[in-house]
Specification:
Elements (H helix, E strand, L loop, with lengths): L8 E13 L7 H14 L4 E3 L8 E5 L11 E7 L3 E2 L3 H17 L4 E4 L6 E7 L5 H13 L1 H5 L30 H18 L5 H8 E2 L4 H5 L6 E2 L6 E2 L20 E3 L8 H21 L7 E2 L6 E2 L7 H15 L8 H9 L1
Parallel strand pairs: 2-3
Antiparallel strand pairs: 1-4, 1-5, 1-6, 1-7, 3-4, 7-11, 8-9, 10-11, 12-13
Helix pairs in contact: 2-8, 3-5, 3-6, 3-8, 5-6, 8-9
């Protein structure tokens, strides 16, 4: 699907699902996880149970946030993929089909489902570390195209009240809350300039703009925090993995070197996981390339400067960004996204 230049970008996915023990013979999450791991290994999936800092095989880890509290026989599971090169979309497709087909074949033992609480996270990295300017370009694109991306998502993944996929401009972010889109983009530009000029290329100033959490938030109060802190797990775009030197006050810093796109919903089929991976990787590749030029607005009549509306970029402009990413990645096409494009045009 891609040329050699795509090797500079890599990705991984995290798929949250609910699995019910139909025969009530998996008395604990661990019992079900072991059964699932054997099922998937027999299907040819290289997989293990438990957290590991290595991403060379699939992993099965608990996901308490999607648990069905009313059904003690239903368990929240997160399937964490190995690292794929951007030219390995077909490999991801094959792996996900093995996984979903194997679960489907065990209908008498397992019942698979998703819920609005389930999500799919895509992690993207690049071999060469992103500069502060490139991180700012990505962040600008994330804000500029937020409404367009919302149109490609189910309503519950664009709801302002979504706990685990809030807008990076939500009220819990003291750096951006209450600012216009133009002001947000200007703040990111200023942070990138400060990072380059004063902090020896440290990306922290840009990440703090996108992933700061106020000390007045419920989380801060519950954790006893008395100052604002960096945490990306509540936002659509989590950039904390790009911190070059995490600090003790940072909370839940993500996988080192990665950008996490947290907005996609849970996957009901293998094809869904491929769609969200392709969308996220193409978006990041395109945004890093051209994001610094987005959102400049149009000349105001009378030469009064540039203005930018709150609506940001359109779905058509978003597709142009995906195309730019496709070119950077060396992909032949974006055919797997056609269904999403149709949905966005009718939204």
């Amino acid at each position: 699907m891609a040329t050699a230049q795509a090797q500079s970008f890599q990705f991984g996915v995290e798929v949250e699902v609910l699995l019910e023990s139909c025969k009530r013979n998996h008395r604990t999450w661990g019992d079900l996880a072991e059964f699932l791991s054997k099922l998937l290994r027999n299907a040819g999936v290289c997989i293990r149970v438990g957290v590991s800092k290595k991403y060379e095989e699939w992993k099965i880890v608990p996901e308490r946030s999607v648990q069905d509290q009313e059904n003690p026989w239903t368990y929240g599971v997160e399937l964490v993929s190995p690292v794929y090169g951007a030219d390995s979309i077909s490999t991801l497709n094959e792996d996900l089909h093995r996984i979903f087909d194997a679960i489907d074949s065990a209908k008498g033992d397992l019942a698979f489902s998703t819920s609005p609480q389930c999500s799919t996270h895509v992690h993207i990295s690049r071999t060469d570390p992103l500069s502060p300017g490139e991180v700012a370009s990505l962040a600008r694109a994330a804000l500029y195209f937020e409404r367009a991306l919302d149109q490609l998502m189910p309503p519950w993944r664009s709801d302002p009240g979504s706990h685990w996929a809030r807008s990076n401009r939500a009220e819990i972010n003291p750096a951006l809350a209450g600012l216009s889109l133009a002001q947000c983009l200007a703040k990111l530009d200023a942070a990138a300039e400060a990072a380059t000029a004063e902090a020896a290329g440290d990306t922290r100033p840009v990440i703090e703009v996108m992933n700061l959490v106020t000390r007045d938030s419920r989380l801060a109060v519950a954790r006893g925090r008395t100052a604002d802190f960096v945490r990306g797990k509540n936002y659509k775009w989590n950039l904390t993995g790009l911190l070059s030197a995490p600090r003790p006050d940072d909370m839940d810093v993500d996988v080192p070197g990665t950008i996490e796109f947290r907005q996609p919903p849970g996957c009901a089929r293998a094809e869904d996981g491929v769609v969200w991976a392709v969308l996220a990787v193409a978006f990041v590749a395109g945004a890093v390339a051209v994001g610094g030029r987005l959102g400049m607005g149009e000349e105001e009549e009378g030469g009064g400067g540039r203005v930018l509306g709150e609506e940001g970029g359109s779905v058509e402009e978003l597709w142009e960004l995906f195309e730019q990413g496709r070119v950077v990645l060396g992909w032949e096409d974006l055919d797997v996204l056609k269904q999403l494009r149709s949905a966005g045009q009718t939204a």
